[in-house]
Amino acid sequence: MGAATLVSLEEYLSTSYDPDRDYVDGELEDRNVGKKSHAKAQGNLHLALRIHYPSLFVVVEQRIRVSATRYRVPDVCAMLAEPDEEVFTEPPFLCIEVLSPEDRASRIQRKIADYLKCGVCYIWVIDPRTREAFIHTATGMHAVEDGVLRTSDPDIAVPLAEIFG
């Protein structure tokens, strides 16, 4: 990774990046995207949630303020109702991160910590290479052993076979 790119919050919020980037304490962080397995899993997750849970507002690559100096861009997120704002300042109910081979555990853990700290109820982390998934909540993390990603209140269940199929 090269030298950090420092930008003001105002510049970040008024600039479009392709692909979009996370903003962490004045630095832009690249997101690992662009490979077929990542895109396929991301698209299938978005589609599954939109079809099976139409009451949710589900979007891909949406900027979310996780603190005054940090903005994250999850691969997919779900809100219980559609926000009125372009950049979300309220936490989603669910954030989903699809891993790429280049992702590092320490960086993903920082994202998960940011999501939990700002009030996201559920974080799903999916690895298309190993076809494994993990669910993170404020009470801890567990591997998906039964092949179904879940939440409660509201109850959501997405089979891994639907994501990797």
What do these coordinates show?
This protein has four helices and 13 strands. A hairpin with a 4-residue loop joins strand 9 (122-127) and strand 10. The protein has helices spanning 9-13, 36-52, 105-118, 160-164; strands at 5-6, 22-24, 27-29, 57-60, 64-67, 70-72, 76-79, 94-98, 122-127, 132-137, 140-143, 148-151, 156-159. The mean pLDDT is 93. With 165 residues, the chain is of the alpha+beta class. The longest helix has 17 residues, at 36-52. The strands form three sheets. Strands 4-7-8-9-10-11 form a six-stranded mixed sheet, with helices on both faces.
Based on CA atoms alone, the radius of gyration comes out at 15 Å
> Biggest sheet, open or closed, and with what strands and sense?
6 strands, mixed
How are the strands of the biggest sheet laid out side by side? 4-7-8-9-10-11
End-to-end CA span? 33 Å
List segments where confidence is low: pLDDT < 50 over at least 5 consecutive residues.
none
CATH topology: tt1808, chain A
- Percent in strands: 25-35%
Tell me the structural class: alpha+beta
Domain tally: 1
CATH superfamily: tt1808, chain A
| Percent range of helical residues | 10-25%
Q: Class in CATH? A: Alpha Beta
Q: Looking at the structure, what is the overall shape?
A: globular
Number of strands: 13
CATH architecture assignment name: Alpha-Beta Complex
Number of helices: 4
Question: Helix and strand string, N-terminal first?
Answer: EHEEHEEEEEHEEEEEH
Q: Write down the overall mean pLDDT.
A: 93
